[in-house]
Amino acid sequence: LRAQIDALEQESLTFDLLGDLLTARRDVAAREVARLETSIRVLEQALLDRRRQEAEQQAAEADRIRREAARAHPLVREVAEENARLARLRADVALADRIAALGRRLEDRTAELAALKSSFDRVRKQVDAVGLSPALGERLRALRSQLYDVRPLARASDELQAKIADSSAQVLTLSDQLGDYALLDSVVEELMSRFDAAEDEADAAEIRRALLELLNQRRQILSAFKGEYETYAARLIELDGVLRQIISRTREFRDYIDQRILWVRSAPTLGVRSVVDALRAARGRLLDAGLWTQAAADFRRGANARGTSAVGLSGLILVLLLARPWAVRRQANAAAIASKSTTLSFAPTAEATVLTIIRAAPWPLLFWALQTVGNASAEWSILCAAFGGAMSSLAMFISLCAVVWHVCAPNGLALHHFGWPAQAVARLQRTARWAASLGAPPLLLWTMLDQMPEEWGLVPLAQISFALFQIVLLGVSIRIWSGSNSLIRWFAPQRRGARFAWFSLVLRPLCVAVPVVLSLMSLFGYHYTATHLFHGAALTATIGLSIEWAYLMALRWLLLSRRKLAIQQARQRREAAQQADDARPGEAEATPAESQTDLTTISAQARGLAASLAIFVFAVVLLYTWDETLSGLAFLKQVTLWTTTQQVTETVVGPDGAPMTRTIEQLTRIDLADLTFALIVVVVSIVLSRNVPGLLEIVLLQRLPLGAGERYAISAVSRYVIAIVGTIMAFSVIGVGWSKVQWLVAAATVGLGFGLQEIFAN
């Protein structure tokens, strides 16, 4: 045993030496790989230079032969001119230069992919080794900001796919042309069939020899051209493959960071000491006159660089300001027309919408112009970069407040087009002005401080300004949702029902709680998490308000459509009554009165469909927005509920080498995401089947010469079709195929058939 221990101790002494040896071997191998890669690049460049010279020589030779054949027989001259055209085309296309450029791009992209993989592997090892520490969280945030935006890469990949298809088509075309010249003697004999036999036999032999030489030259040109296109297509395929790997790795890396970065403390808990240190740092950094002088100079450079854009935006702002009195008069005229109960046109509402945007645009456009100049100066000055980002956020906030302010103006959309209560409109306008006045300063300060380097020590001031901005938003939420003077109480008599109650129960505590929670998270050190969540919440709120605006416009259009239909029915009733008075009593009793469309039911269905559609669109946008932000729905794909077999049709190679199709059964996994999507399909189908018939009546059926029974039959059929299609889609998502659900469809169609038979019988 003692001898074995000694042997093991002696062996352990060699481990360090073996490690050094392996490291040395790895370094030697790396240097050898680098040397070989350099040799490969040199050889590839030499090959490309040789191809370029060969193409130029072929073009020059073909052009020389064409000039010499100018006095030859027309057959020889025709073939020589075609050779010269092909050689010149090959030289003009310059595939050798394109291949060289692709090689350089491929080399750069391959290095980027290797660096991305290496960085991802290092980060994963560090996270597994030490966990999510604040220092590692800072590194993850830095890496997150340095990752590629995959959208330009995806567009580049699509462009490469188009080029691959084009080059592959060129290869096929050139291959077909080469196939035509596989047997040169046959081609020569075919051309010689156009030769006049009465001419001298010596001339015929000379022409045959010249044609054979020219056709052989053409085959060489086509072969070289085809080889270049094949190399070009191969390089395109390689580059596209590397791009797709970069896109895939970038998305994987971003998801990995997003799932971890939000739960790492990004700053110390705010305290007196940290605030004092931040104030000292701000005094040393931001009160430096030289820094601001340099920033002003850099801002002027950016203005000169973006002079065209700045002048264009300034001119647009001036035009909008000059057009404001005209817009006010036109909006007052549109409000007067829309307020009349006899108005049937949607044009005044559409005009008022455009005029609202015109009146609200100048201030946001000014901030966006400043943002454009600030971004142009970002490469020279940190302050200019921070100023540009702050102007972008301020423009979004002010644009939202300005739109709400002008919508709630005395002649705005809210009062005269949407029919909102006057007290609510006035209070909402005051709330928008109050939010813009108090919210703009802390928003500007927070966004500027947030974009400055962390080593400047200004993060505590950013935390304070972010918390102040959240307090302003909290005040807005309270003015809208809570208290005896809240806006909701003015709408409660108009919006009673389960949907409005659900919104009140969900949105009221959510809008009040979100600013409080985010400000506390920032103050306790989770500043990055709070700001990241706020950006998602702000985007969600903006999209929600946009969808609400579209919903109100749809309600206005439905109201006008219902009013138009009611007037039409009133005229029909008046005409029928007049005809009944003019007719004899016997004839009047013989003509039954046709039932009128139930406007109340149709209007309720159309309004319900519009509300359901707005909620559905908002839910889809909400899922997309927060899936990008939190990657929180990834676990749905990991929860397997059951497995099922599905029939799949695939194409395979048969025994004779020809392609053939076959149907096989494949085991499919049904997860929680599939079940969730199936439930969404069911809900959407129910909503559509209940509300689409009313919308169909307003939009289409009332304009057709159909009776009440025929319109009811069409509505019933559309309701059943929507329900059947939704059922089939829902079952297919969870693995229940057509063979298992067709009996249900058959039963529904049989019931529909009996119902239609009864309708038409009556």
Walk me through this protein's architecture.
With about 750 residues, this protein is mainly alpha-helical. The protein folds into 3 domains: about 50-260; about 270-560, no CATH class; about 635-650 and about 660-760, Helix Hairpins. It is about 80% helix and about 5% strand. The protein has 25 helices and 2 strands. A hairpin with a 5-residue loop joins β1 (about 640-655) and β2.
Task: Name the strands of the widest sheet in spatial order.
Answer: 1-2
Rg is 38 Å
How many structural units, i.e. domains? 3
Helicity level, as a percent range?
over 70%
Q: On the 0-100 scale, what is the average pLDDT?
A: 77
Low-confidence stretches: 586-595
SS content category: mainly alpha
- Figure out the total of helices: 25
